Amino acid sequence: MSATDTKSGEQLMTTMMTQGGNAATAQQAAAQGQAVIAPEPPPPPRTFTIRGRDGLQTITIPANTFDNVIPQQVVDISIAFFITMAIIIIGFPLARAFARRMDRRGGSAQISNEVSSQLAHLNQAVDAIALEVERISEGQRFTTRLLSEQKEAARQTLPSGANR
């Protein structure tokens, strides 16, 4: 066995040890002068393999069994939840700003001079009407009192057996 064979055997042994091969078998093969066999290539990427302590394959599970572990309804609900949260986070400040703008607009409205003068004129007209209504009611009270006094005077002048 030459020095290059020993060096390449050690490299193969190191490679096998780092890749999970059986190191004892590799040392025995190198000591006997046999060629060291490269480790088995990994399985296709769509399978999931579990190896035991002795390095032998114990379980192989196809990877597609883990597809769609989460039901579609859960995905839909989670998407709806995050969309709702985004709407609340964005919509709440917008609603507050809109409400504040509406409050500012309603509080600063001022009455024009024309409307103010019309209201003053209307107020004077209502006062004049109230004064006239009071005079009319005084006249009615006076007339009612005169009629009641005349009726009493007429009763007193009638004989007691007369028709009232």
List keywords for this structure.
164 residues; mainly alpha; two-stranded antiparallel sheet; 4 helices; rod-shaped; disordered N terminus
Task: Explain the overall architecture.
By secondary structure, this protein is mainly alpha-helical. Among the domains are: 64 residues, no CATH class; 44 residues. The protein contains 4 helices and 2 strands. Strands 1-2 form a two-stranded antiparallel ribbon. β1 and β2 form a beta hairpin. α1 runs antiparallel to α2. It starts with a helix and ends in a 7-residue tail after the last helix. The N terminus is likely disordered.
Low-confidence stretches: 1-7, 15-20
Determine the number of helices (DSSP H or I, runs of at least 4 residues): 4
Cα-atom radius of gyration: 56 Å
Euclidean distance between termini CA atoms: 164 Å
Helix content: 55-70%
**Count of individual beta strands:** 2
Silhouette: rod-shaped
Strand order of the largest sheet: 1-2
Strand content: 5-15%
Mean pLDDT: 78
Which class do the helix and strand fractions yield? mainly alpha
Element string (H = helix, E = strand): HHEEHH
Write the layout of secondary structure elements.
Elements: H1 3-18, H2 23-32, E1 47-51, E2 57-62, H3 72-107, H4 113-157
Antiparallel strand pairs: 1-2
Helix pairs in contact: 1-2
